[in-house]
């Protein structure tokens, strides 16, 4: 693909970095003649239990409890909901956290000053600024203002760049979550065709391109949501990762029998039956599950995994595993393995 690649590119780069290992089948719900519906909630609970144990061990050794600071700007209901999920997850695994609320009228310079203070606060291990931000604020500038070793979202250009070069970095939580779904479910990637359907343009935090040479031996195609050849690519794919932000973009006739479908999309649509808004993904779930081998639901799929991986990143930040002298080539996989 040409131009800057958003979230989909990062997803593929992370999900193809590591080896596959299966997990117990009770993590899935299996319906006859339909896909295995992967419970991201149950997988996330497993990861949060691992994180909780890691925090307990860290604190038992006399170390300070990990602390996460979240900056929330404005009154976006979805953002407030996401932040609440993150702080609840932090409490669940034993991470202390705070939410710093700022009005939508805050200036970019005021926000950057706040980030600078949090960067220099030794009590703050992990730091994230909830996106999206008001239009008068440059999101890329804000993401790059967060210290790379506290950047638990993995949005800083240094972390994105180092990850793409297979160097020690903070992995972005959503792509890492997608990879954990594939790895822990036991979906094979060796020699398989992987297609990522993504938006042609994306927010600054999604910049990045996968580097050449995919360790798991998969064949990668990135398909823009407006591409006329999307269906040509998806119909050949063994694994389809949908991250375009378009409801029902991936339909049953676009995938082959037995494909694994990972739905990253989160779209709010009007439900004509209940006359209320509801969350849906990028995949026509009811129809595609009749044809796929594995599928993730929305909600309850990738979303909980993103939050779980954010907790793992906060622990990485607290342990100072990203000190400059330790940032060596070939460390990205070791970092994830150390926190698994």
Automatic annotation (TrEMBL):
Q: Which PROSITE patterns match?
A: THF_DHG_CYH_1 (PS00766), THF_DHG_CYH_2 (PS00767)
Superkingdom of the organism of origin: Eukaryota
> One Gene Ontology cellular component annotation?
mitochondrion
Entry EC number(s): 3.5.4.9
Sequence ranges assigned to domain Tetrahydrofolate dehydrogenase/cyclohydrolase catalytic in this UniProt record = 38-153
Q: According to its UniProt record, which reaction does this protein catalyse?
A: (6R)-5,10-methenyltetrahydrofolate + H2O = (6R)-10-formyltetrahydrofolate + H(+)
* Residues in Tetrahydrofolate dehydrogenase/cyclohydrolase NAD(P)-binding domain copies: 172-320
A GO biological process held by the record:
tetrahydrofolate interconversion
Keywords in UniProt for this one?
Hydrolase, Multifunctional enzyme, One-carbon metabolism, Oxidoreductase
| InterPro entries noted in UniProt | Aminoacid_DH-like_N_sf (IPR046346), NAD(P)-bd_dom_sf (IPR036291), THF_DH/CycHdrlase (IPR000672), THF_DH/CycHdrlase_cat_dom (IPR020630), THF_DH/CycHdrlase_CS (IPR020867), THF_DH/CycHdrlase_NAD-bd_dom (IPR020631)
For molecular function, the Gene Ontology terms on record are:
methenyltetrahydrofolate cyclohydrolase activity; methylenetetrahydrofolate dehydrogenase (NAD+) activity; methylenetetrahydrofolate dehydrogenase (NADP+) activity
Please state which protein family the record places this protein in. Belongs to the tetrahydrofolate dehydrogenase/cyclohydrolase family.
Name of this protein: methenyltetrahydrofolate cyclohydrolase
Say which species the protein is native to. Answer: Sarcophilus harrisii
Its gene name is MTHFD2
């Amino acid at each position: 693909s040409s131009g800057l690649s958003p979230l989909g590119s990062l997803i593929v780069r992370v999900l193809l970095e590591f080896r596959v290992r299966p997990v117990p089948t009770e993590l899935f719900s299996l319906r006859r003649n339909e896909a295995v519906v992967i419970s991201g909630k149950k997988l996330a609970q497993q990861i949060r239990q691992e994180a909780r144990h890691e925090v307990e061990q860290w604190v038992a050794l006399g170390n300070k409890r990990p602390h996460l600071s979240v900056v929330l700007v404005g009154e976006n209901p979805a953002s407030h909901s996401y932040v609440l999920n993150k702080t609840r997850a932090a409490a669940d695994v034993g991470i202390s956290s705070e939410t710093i609320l700022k009005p939508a009228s805050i200036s970019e310079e005021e926000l950057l000053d706040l980030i600078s203070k949090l960067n220099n606060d030794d009590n703050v291990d992990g730091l994230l600024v909830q996106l999206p931000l008001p239009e008068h604020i440059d999101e890329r500038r804000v993401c790059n203002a967060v210290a790379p070793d506290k950047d638990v979202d993995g949005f800083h250009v240094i972390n994105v760049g180092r990850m793409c070069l297979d160097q020690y970095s903070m992995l972005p939580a959503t792509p890492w979550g997608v990879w954990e779904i594939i790895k822990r479910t036991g979906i094979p990637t060796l020699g398989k065709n992987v297609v990522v359907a993504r938006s042609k343009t994306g927010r600054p935090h999604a910049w990045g391109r996968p580097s050449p040479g995919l360790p798991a031996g998969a064949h990668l195609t990135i398909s823009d949501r407006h591409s006329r050849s999307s269906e040509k690519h998806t119909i050949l794919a063994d694994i389809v990762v949908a991250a375009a932000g378009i409801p029902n973009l991936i339909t049953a006739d676009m995938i082959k029998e037995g494909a694994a479908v990972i739905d990253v999309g989160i779209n709010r649509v009007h439900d004509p039956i209940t006359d209320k808004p509801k969350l849906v993904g990028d995949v026509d779930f009811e129809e595609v599950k009749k044809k796929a081998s594995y599928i993730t639901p929305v909600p309850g799929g990738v979303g909980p995994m993103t939050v779980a991986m954010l907790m793992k990143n906060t622990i990485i930040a607290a342990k100072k595993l990203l000190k400059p002298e330790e940032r060596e080539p070939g460390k990205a996989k070791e970092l994830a393995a150390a926190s698994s």
